## 1
Amino acid sequence: MSQSKKIRVLVAKPGLDGHDRGAKVIARALRDAGMEVIYTGLRQTPEQIVAAALQENVDVVALSSLSGAHLHLFPRVTALLKEKGLGDVLVIGGGIIPAEDIPVLKAAGVAAIFTPGTATAAIIEFIRANVKRT
Amino acid sequence: MKTSISDLVRGVLQSDRRSIARLITLIEDQEPEAFLALKQIFPATGRAYVIGITGPPGAGKSTLVDKLAKHLRRQGCSVGIIAVDPTSPFSGGAILGDRVRMADLAIDPGVFIRSMASRGSLGGLSWATADAVKVLDAGGMDYIFVETVGVGQAEVEIARHADLTLVTLVPGLGDEIQAMKAGVLEIGDLLVVNKADREGADRLVLELETMLDLSRHENSSRPAIVKTVGTTGEGIGFLWKKIEERLISMKASGELANRRKERLRQEVLEIWQRQLWQVIDSRLAGENVDRLLERIVKRQIDPYTAVEQILASIPPRFKNLWGGELRMQIRKIDHLGIAVKSLADALSFYENILGLKSAGTEVVEDQKVKVAFLPVGDSEIELLESTTADGPIAKFIEKKGEGLHHIALRVDDLEAALAELKEKGVRLIDTEPRYGAGGARIAFLHPQAGRGVLLELTERQE
Ligand SMILES: Nc1nc2c(ncn2[C@@H]2O[C@H](COP(=O)(O)OP(=O)(O)OP(=O)(O)O)[C@@H](O)[C@H]2O)c(=O)[nH]1
Ligand SMILES: [Mg+2]
C-alpha cells in the first residue's frame, strides 16, 4: 500500500525580486519526476515559508533567490524550521549565489546549493538520495 | 521521527498544527496508522461547516477562498482550507499552486491550509479529501473550505462532501457555460459570478437567472447568484451573508442533517468498496489470474467466466470478512503457562514468596513435561518443567530462556471452536483436540495467529 508515498517539496521564493521563472522550471521538473510540488509564489517571508512547510508536511524546502539576500534569508528559514521541530526537512537552495557564500549557507543547514546551469536531473537525484522519510 | 498514534490523535484534538499536517500525510499515503487515528478522532468530528468551491480553471476559486477566510477571521472564526489540484497522469507528480493566492494566510494561527494532489481520483477531489476534512474538523476548525480541481465542468463529487457548494463562474467563458449548465444547477447552492469587474458579468447573471427559471428546485431552494471581484474583495461580505443565510435555513429545515447523513452513508459505502476491492485485488495478484489472462487473450475463456472463477477461488477466510459469523466464545483465561528450568525452584518463589498454593504436580507424558497448577482467582498459573533434554519446553527455554510460554483460553466446545478457526484459515498446531494436564481437552494455535503468543484452547469440566 505504501508505494503511494510521494515526496512533497515546497518551492519558495524568498526575497523581493520579481522573477520566478527559475523556480517554475524546477517545480515542473520535480513534478515530472513524480513529486508533489507546493508552489507558494513570489516574495515569501521566511516565516511564511516555514508555516507553509509545516502545514504541508513537506519533505523538502527548495529556496530560490536572485536578489542577493540569500545570506540573510536562507539561514533564517533553516533556523525557523529547527525552531518548529522541522529540523529533518531537507533544505536546498538555488539562484544566483556567489561561490564564496556556499560554505556559509551549508554551515547554516542548507544541504546543497544549485547554481544556474545545474541540470534538473542532478537536483532530482540529490533530493531522492537525501530526503529523510519518517 | 516516529510519534505514537495516541500522541498524534491527542495532538490533532488539541489543534496541534504539526500533528494535523502529519496525520493528513499518513492518510494520503494510505498508511495503516492513519485509519487507526481516524477511528479515534471520529467522535470529535461533525462540528465544522464544510463549504465546497468548484468552477472552471482560473475562475478565482483560490482568490475567493482567501477573501472569505479573511472575512471569517475578522469574526474570530478559525478556518481550514483544502485545495486540490490535479496529479499528472504521466508522472504521478503535481504542482499545487493554490497557496499563491493565500500567501498571507499562511502565518495566521487561526488558518490551516493544505494543498492536496488528486492522486488519480476523478471528480475534482482526492479520495483522501474527506478524511483530511475530518482531521481539520477534529482539529477545531469552525469552517472548512474545499477547493476542487479547476474542472471544465462543474463536478458533482464536491456536493457529496460539503454542507454547501459554491459554483464559481466568470464572464467570457462563452459556450462553456452551456456545457456546465446541468452540473451548475444540480450542485450549486450558490452561484458566484466572479471577475464582476469584467465585461459581461451582468449578462452572465441574466443567463443564469433564465436557466434557473427553467429548472425546478424540488428538494432545495433556488440558489442565489452573487457577483464578486475576488481581487479587491468586492461582494465578499454579501457572499458570506448569503452563505450564512443558506446554512441557517438548511439547519432549520433539517436539510443540513440530511446531507450530512447522506455523506456518511456514501463514506461507509466507499470504505466498504475499497476494502472489498483490496481483498479481491490481493487475489488478482495471484498467478492464477495470470494464467486466466493467458486464456482470455487466446479467447479460450471470456472475461465474465474468468472473474467468476476468481471469485470462486477466494478462500473461505476472505469470505469470512464479510460473511462469516463469530460463533465461538472465549469464557476466560484458563491459565498462563510459564516455562521453568526447575519446578522445585520456581515453586519456592510462587508458593513461599507469593503465597500461591500448588494444587499438586503432574507429569504429562506425551508433552514431556512435569507441571504444577497454582490457582489465582478464576484462573491458574501453570509452571512447566521439561522431563527430557529434547522436550518442547526444554527447547523453548534453550531459545528464549525461562518465561511466559503460552496463554490458555477456556472454550465450551473445543471441537466446534477448532472447526470455526479452520474455516477462517487460522493456522493451528493441533487440528484435533488432545489431552493435557488435569484431564482437560486442549489444542494449540500457531504462535503466528496469536501475534507472537502461543495460544491454547482449553475445554474442561469444572
Ligand atoms: N480581474 C479579475 N481577476 C481575478 C478576480 N478574481 C481572481 N482573479 C485573478 O484570476 C487569476 C486566477 O485566480 P485563482 O484564484 O488562482 O483561480 P482558481 O480558480 O483558483 O484557479 P485554479 O485553482 O488554477 O483552477 C488570478 O490571476 C487572480 O488574481 C476578479 O474578480 N477579477
Ligand atoms: Mg485555485
## 2
Amino acid sequence: MSKERIQISEDLYDIMPSDYQDLVKSSTYGKEDRGWKDIGTSKELIEQHSLCAGCPESMAFRYILASLPNPEDTVMVGSTGCTSLVFPMVAVHNIHSLFGNQNAVASGLKRALSVRFPDRVKDVVVLAGDGATVDIGLDMTLQAWFRQEKFTTICFDNELYANTGGQESGLMQKGFVAKMAPVGKLFDKVRLPEIARESGCHYVVNCTVSKPSLVEKVIRNAVHIAREIGPTYLQLYTPCILEIGKNSMEGLQEMRDSEKPAERFAYKEYVSEPAKQLLAELAAKDKERKAAAKQLAGQASA
Amino acid sequence: MAETKSIIGTQNKKGQTYTDAWKLLNEAPRTPSFFTGSEVIKEAIRRASCDVMIAYPITPQSEAAALIGELFAEGYVGDYFRGESEFAVMSQCAGAAFGGARVFTTTAGPGTMRAMENFPMWAGSRLPIQMIVTCRGINSPLSIQPDTLEIAYLLNTGMLVWHAETAQDFFDWILKGYMVSEEPDVHLPLALCCDGFFVTHTKDVVNLTPADMCLPPYDPYRSPVPCMDMECPPVRMMRDPFVMKSNYISYATHASWQQEIWAAVERSRKHSIHWLNGLIDAENTDTDIMIVASGTAVSQGREAIRMLEDEGVRCGLVKVKTLRPWPEEEIREATKNAKHIFVPEFNVTGWLAKEIKATIPNHHRVHAGPHVCGGMTMPPEIIVNEIKTALGMKKSFVMAGRGS
Ligand SMILES: Cc1ncc(C[n+]2csc(CCOP(=O)(O)OP(=O)(O)O)c2C)c(N)n1
Ligand code: SF4
Ligand SMILES: [Mg+2]
C-alpha cells in the first residue's frame, strides 16, 4: 500500500500534528528494503517514549520498528510492563489488554484478520516482557505455539519484573538477589528458547540487541516464517539498567558482555527444515531483485 | 451503514440471504421446532453471521459449544477452535474482536470466574463480543448444577447483562443481542445468561426463523474506537502515554473513560427497549402482591401465580429481561401498587432482591426469597408458601425434606 492509507486531506494538513505530517512525508511504510539504516533519514514509527534514559528496550523498539517487513499491514500485541509505556507512541496498530494474555489475544486477532482478509497479508507480532511471556503468560505462550498460530512472539528479556520494581522472574539468572528472591533466585533461568523449539516454533533466536543489523535480520526472518509457515520466537536481551545498577550509557556494554561465547546471550538460532527452505527462496528472490535493480541502474546511466 | 444496506438481499457462501435484522426477527415466517436449549444456540448462531467462535468445555455449555463447531465444519462460522482455558478463550475473543470480527463464545460457572479479568477489559476496549453464560454453581464443593450466583459478579463489569427465561428468548436474544451491542453508541460486550440445564438441557418448542436467512455482517468501521487492522491510519493513540502515570490528567482520563462505558450501558437502554419490546414484561401490576424475577424463576413464579389464583389470591408478575441496563424506572412503576414484592432466586445471596431494594421506594416491601441454590429446583409450591407465610395465611403445602 505504501502510504495511501495515512494521507492527510489537503484542507486539514496544517492542523495535523507535525509528527503525523512527518510520518506521511518520510516514513518507510511500503518500502521493500526498509531496515535499520533508514533510522536518521526517515521518520521512525516510534515517537518519543517514557522509558528510563538509556534503557536498551528503546533501542530494541527502534530497530524492530525500522525492520518490520510489512508495517503497513502489521498489528502488534503488547502486554503490561515497561513496553506498555512505549506502545501508545508506536505508529502501527497495537493492542494492550491485560498482563500475560498477549499470545491469546494474538491468536484471536490473527484468525480474525485471516477471516476478514483472506487474500491479503496481515502480519501479527507480539512483543512482551519476560514476566508476561514466561511466568504469568506461559500457558498461552506455549499453547499458541502448539496450535501453530502464525505470528511472531518477541520477548524483551530483562531477566526481571522491571515495571513493578525489579522482582524475581523465571528468566532471571539463578542466584541473583532481587525483590521476592531475598536469598537469591533458587532455580535456573527457564530455557524458553529450547522449549520454543520443542513446542513447534519454526524459528527461534536468542540474542541481544547490541547490533541493529542482526536485529533487522532476525525480525525479517521471524515475520516471514510466521506468515508462511508457523510460530516464531525471538528472545532479546534488553537489560534493565535501572534494576541491575547500571548508568544510562552502560546498556550497550552490558549486552556486549552478555553475548560473548558461553555467556547466556551468545547468539543461538534454530530454523526448522521448511523455514530453511523459505529463507533460501526469499534470499534467491532478494538476489534477483537486486540484480534487476542494478541492471536498471546500469541502463539508466548508459 | 451504506455497506450494510447494500449487502441486504445478497447471499453468503452458504446461500443464506443477508436480511434486514428487524425483518428477520419480526416479519420472517417462523417454524415451530422441538429443540434443546443447546440446539437452539446452534440454530441462532447459524443465522448470526459470526466470524469467530472460540470454545472450551464446561458443563452445561459444552454441548452448545461443540455444536457450533459443527456449524464451522459446515461453513457457517468463519473460524472456530478450542482454547486452552476460559481466561485464554476470553482473551482470544478480545483479539478477534479487536481485529474486527463478530465474535461468539459460551461459558459457565467456574469458567466465568476463571475468565473474569477479561470482562472489564472487553467493556473498556468497547468490544461487542457476545458470551452465553449457562449459569451453574461456582463455590466449593464442586457442583455442576444450576445456580445463578455468577451473574452477580458480571453486573459491575461494564458488560450488558441479559437473563433469558426460555429457549425462545435465547434464540431471539442471541440475534437481537448483536444488534444492540454493535450499535456505535453502545459497542459493548453482552453476557447473555440463562439457568444451566433448565434451559440448555430441556426440550421446548421454539419458533425459528428460516435457515436460509441471516443477519447482516458486523461492520467494524462503525465502531467508536479504531479497529486494529491497519485499514485506517495508525495514529498514535496517545501523545503521552498516560497509563500508569500518577498525575491528575491520567486520573481524569481514566475516570472519564469509565464514565463513558457506563454511559454507553445507559445508551443501550433505548436499543434494548426497541428490540426486546421493553426491559421488563409486567402483568397485573394493580395487585397488592408482585413477584419480580429473572431467568427460569419467572416461569416458576408464573406457575405459583396460577396456583394462588386457584385459591383466590391475586398476584402480579415482573419478568426482568435486562439486568444491565437495569430497568429502574420500569420496576418502580410496575411495583408502585404492591404492598409485598417477592423475589424468587436460584442463588444463595439474593442479588436480584438487593438490586430491587436499592431501586424502589419503601424497600421493606421486598421479601428476598424464596432462594434455592446448589442445583435445587424451585417448585412453585415453595413460592406459594413463602407468599402465604409473609401474608400470615396458612401454608398450602408441606414440603418434604425442605424444613419449613
Ligand atoms: C494480573 C496482573 N498481575 C500483576 C500485574 C502487575 N504487573 C504489571 S507489569 C508487571 C511486570 C512486568 O514484567 P515483564 O513482563 O518482565 O516486563 P518488564 O516490565 O520487565 O519489561 C507486573 C507483575 C498486572 N498488571 N496484572
Ligand atoms: S525500569 Fe528498566 S526496563 Fe523499565 S524502562 Fe527503566 S531501565 Fe528500562
Ligand atoms: Mg522483564
